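Input structure tokens:
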């Protein structure tokens, strides 16, 4: 790898250029396909494709027209890359010029999350992105510092370097190697994103390549470590002194990140986007339990997964409906980026007949069902309600003082900070 100032990158296969005969797991066909697309002819062809998604008819017509000028294999590759770029627009602002594989795009973190995470490394001049894939995190880590991307997939490494150039990160170092064989300098900071898929299939829960235990062990070898993990990771696996951060994009829980003691700032954190907004673990008195008030807050899955409902309740001055249930309630609107605000219009012990009557009295024909602590089958319920009308409502199935309960609610999308 290149040297910058007093810092030397870890040694491994692929100095200056990734070794085209290195341990790429996917063989020469993908490499040859990328070669064709990166050629002047391939770039010209990609530049001729229309913007935005193509329906099957449009794709057929475009492909037929382009095959009059370009080889059929090249046209097929370009159309595939175009489709991935369209999908990638949901994660990257410059996706239209980036390089993807299907697997690489699926596993890459979005631009907002990666940029936020890179802020943890502000005090480090050199960062290694282990198992970097197509470079979703490497793009952010390389801004303002030297960065090295390491991966066993040579095609992904080449894409990562092209993507870094596109995003103005300059010439990042890359190494095609098994990350477990690298000799890492003590002064280095590391971000590790172990693969949770292999051969296109998801690995069993808790398994990754390299194993989580190896990633956690990096804390004894380098200056600082961040490890991306599945959001369902049992929190009991997080070592003492580490921080676990759960990240959500709106209502979708995306991932967990484990921060070594050198990078940790708390024990547990929930971060939601857009924002970002962060809520961290803080000691305090238990949140009281009481009957539902006029408003309800359905906490973000990042908050519930991080076990921070009590912290959120104290911050909002809210109460819980039941000691074991995560819903929060109050008599004033609950404005928070950490949950979805709902206005309670009816509150009743669970009874299908009574719930159906309440909904019909309000002219509700469409319901969204949210449940915590309820054994009711949602699909069966929506069928048995037999609703008619133009109105909409959110039906919350939960427990109040350990009793099955139902709440009929209206969404509050206009509350400042509310999560839809």
């Amino acid at each position: 790898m290149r040297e910058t100032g007093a810092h030397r990158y870890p040694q491994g296969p692929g100095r200056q250029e990734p070794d085209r005969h290195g341990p790429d797991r996917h063989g020469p066909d993908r490499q040859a396909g990328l070669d064709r697309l990166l050629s002047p002819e391939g770039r010209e062809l990609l530049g001729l494709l229309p913007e935005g998604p193509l329906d099957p008819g449009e794709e057929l017509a475009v492909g037929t027209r382009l095959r009059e000028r370009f080889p059929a294999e090249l046209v097929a590759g370009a159309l595939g890359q175009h489709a991935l770029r369209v999908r990638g627009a949901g994660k990257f602002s410059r996706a239209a010029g980036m390089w993807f594989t299907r697997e690489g795009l699926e596993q890459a973190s979005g631009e907002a999350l990666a940029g936020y995470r890179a802020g943890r490394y502000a005090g480090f001049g050199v960062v290694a992105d282990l198992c970097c894939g197509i470079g979703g995190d490497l793009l952010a880590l390389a801004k303002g510092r030297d960065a090295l991307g390491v991966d066993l997939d040579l095609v992904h490494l080449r894409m990562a370097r092209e993507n870094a150039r596109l995003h103005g990160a300059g010439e990042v170092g890359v190494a095609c190697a098994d990350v477990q064989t690298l000799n890492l300098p003590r002064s280095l900071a590391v971000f590790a994103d172990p693969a949770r898929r292999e051969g296109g299939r998801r690995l069993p829960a808790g398994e990754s390549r390299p194993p989580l235990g190896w990633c956690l062990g990096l804390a004894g070898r380098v200056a600082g470590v961040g490890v991306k993990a599945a959001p369902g990771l049992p929190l009991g696996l997080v070592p003492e002194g580490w921080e676990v951060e759960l990240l959500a994009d709106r209502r979708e829980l995306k991932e967990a990140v484990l921060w070594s003691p050198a990078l940790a700032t708390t024990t547990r954190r929930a971060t939601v986007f857009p924002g970002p907004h962060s809520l961290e673990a803080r000691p305090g008195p238990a949140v009281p339990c009481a009957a539902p008030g006029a408003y309800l807050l359905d906490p973000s899955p990042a908050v519930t997964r991080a076990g921070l409902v009590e912290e959120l309740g104290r911050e909002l001055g809210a109460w819980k409906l039941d000691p074991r249930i995560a819903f929060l309630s109050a008599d004033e609107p609950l404005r928070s980026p950490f949950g979805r605000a709902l206005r309670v219009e009816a509150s009743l012990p669970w009874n299908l007949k009574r719930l159906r009557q309440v909904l019909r009295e309000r002219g509700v024909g469409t319901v969204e069902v949210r449940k915590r602590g309820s054994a009711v089958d949602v699909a069966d319920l929506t069928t048995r309600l037999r609703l008619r009308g133009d109105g909409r409502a959110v039906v919350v199935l939960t427990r109040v003082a350990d009793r099955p309960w139902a709440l009929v609610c209206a969404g509050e999308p206009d509350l400042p900070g509310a999560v839809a």
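The longest strand covers residues 339-349. The chain has three domains: 3-15+104-278, 28-100, 295-411.
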